[in-house]
Here is the input.
Amino acid sequence: MNQKNSLGLDNCFKDLENPIDLFREWFKEAKKSEINDPNALALATAGKNGVPSARMVLLKDFGMNGFVFYTNLNSQKSSEIKSNPNASMCFHWKSLLRQVRITGKLTNVSDIDADNYYKSRSYGSRIGAWASNQSSILKSRAELLKSIEDFKKQYPNEKDIPRPKYWSGWNLDPHEIEFWLDGKDRIHERLRYTKKNDKDWEKNLLSP
Here is the structure.
């Protein structure tokens, strides 16, 4: 029989006042059990027209200030974010039968953070950031491959490739985080944290 926390939930929910601390615990477990990309998440955005779009991106950093991913600032997702910074993330860890949903507002990371992460990427990934006009129409695959080769010639030194100004990161500052655990007969366990101010969060159980 599973142990329960003070709210009557499975003990994996613990009794933490800050959802970032709980996310950190769940993420540690996901990294042990997920075969591929435990940091993969579905990112949902919507532009001025209100039409939603979702895609998978990779979480590259997180902490008390939010959840960070990197992308081309001219991509569809970035264009939508610039006109409507409200967004949602969803992590689904099938091996754990858990998911986490996060909603909040997106802002750009600092140039220093973007530079530091860019330098940590492989040579090919850094070249790709220059070569790809993300989300634009390609006449042919050959067009992209030629662009990659051209930038390799322009930046042959793997240790000296500047970050494109149109490539950076976004940080989601959460105002709501929900933790979900699969339950027998679809009687799932759900715990939602809602931000009250800069430091404090309110916890509520949700019906499955």
User: Anything to note?
Assistant: Residues 11-115+169-206 form a domain with the Pnp Oxidase; Chain A fold (CATH 2.30.110.10). The longest strand covers residues 167-181.
